[in-house]
Amino acid sequence: MIRRFIDKLLKKPARQKKLVHGHPLTPKKIIKRTHHINPELLSKNAVKVTHVLQEAGFEAYIVGGAVRDLLLGIAPKDFDVATNATPEQVQKLFRRSRLIGRRFQIVHVTFYGKERPEIIEVSTFRAHVQADQADVAASGRILRDNVWGNQAEDATRRDFSINAMYYDPQTETVLDYHNGMQDLNAKIIRMIGEPSQRYREDPVRMLRAIRFAAKTGFTIEKETLSPIHELGSLIQDVPSSRLFDEILKLLMSGHAWASIQGLETVGLHHKILPLIEDILSDSDRTEFVKQSLQNTDDRIKSGKPVSAGFLFATLLWHDVQAAWANFESDSMPSVPALHAAIDQVFEQQKEFLGMQRRHEADMREIWTMQPRLEKRVGRYPYRLVESPKFKAGYDFLLLRCQTHEIEAEIGQWWTDFWQGDEHVRAELMQIVKNMPNSAQNTSAPKKRRRRNRSKAAKTTAEQAN
Ligand code: ATP
Ligand code: MG
Prior knowledge:
The protein is an alpha+beta fold and 465 residues long. The protein has 23 helices and 14 strands.
């Protein structure tokens, strides 16, 4: 407190006219009466982090998407804090903190409460590095971004004006360097700086523009939108693991289907994401994915968990089915054919998406459970309902029923079996026993709709010739 007071006394007043790369050094100060942020939507932990940093004499603000969401009256799903303390200084102030990242160093401060732990991401104000000062790839993509700066510089290197506001929970003031509040009121997504240069520095910003437009319903301003058509292919340069993270954010935004449609509108789907292009060019597949993403959106909006494995299992299911049918038609038995198909699909995707092994394991589990769920023989159904993996495979089965890929009766059978007591279960097993062969025999769908046009399917066809 005292140090802050002395710092204040010693600090020269900022000169009004000074600019950072053409942007004002002094922000607009927006007071509570104007911004109406509801303090109840704040994370106590984020407030605590800003408070501890300020008490130690540093500047600290809630920043980015959290401020955007607070101004929109939405409870932010996570909180970021920006400060002039270096990552090492931050780490010293918080016992449960961890330095992470190379390209972009930040500190994660973890709080354990009654519910799941909350991580507050604390980043040090960064300067907007120019191409000649930074570690930059030939395409203009910035590889490292760890040059510290002041708050005005930090604001300038953020992506969109609505994402570049700072909120001090102690004074309840919002600092706005780039007319973010004005754009927020006008419902506009506007890139800070020269849009094509900013996309070249980090092509992921194109995906972010689409995601925020889908999430907020805002319009992407013309100059921010137009370079995307031309620069879309730069996404190919982004490391596949980062691309996976960004696509996951997009799919888990609660507005996944709108985001996918947004990607299609700007032509990003076919330039960069063969997976999404395939989905949108096959009507059966579109229906399945649309249904699944709408379910996902509903789950997220009602606060239910969604797993990445489940999501990608739905996106890639038709690829798996096509490859499975191919292997079976090469006389491979059904179960090994399914595993071979899964291996092939993972191999195919590796080029684009750096999916983590644990997600792949979940997806394999969900897919291989499908024929077994359809079969319903012996003790297997009894064992399966007790398995912790059952719910994901069962949810996936319900989705297949919902989109008429398989009979709705199978989904209902499992719902009854899952909820039923011993007696009900025995009756259900009897029903299956009395069925003609259909329930006993399942394999890859014989009547494939349209052949998958993806690379691997082509390769398999070529090999067969
Ligand atoms: P969400 O609600 O999805 O968390 P967000 O805007 O908070 O959205 P984050 O990825 O959490 O997104 O990033 C936090 C903030 O960091 C952003 O609001 C933005 O100011 C800045 N930021 C993140 N990614 C970039 C980027 N690629 N380029 C420039 N600034 C970025
Ligand atoms: Mg965020």
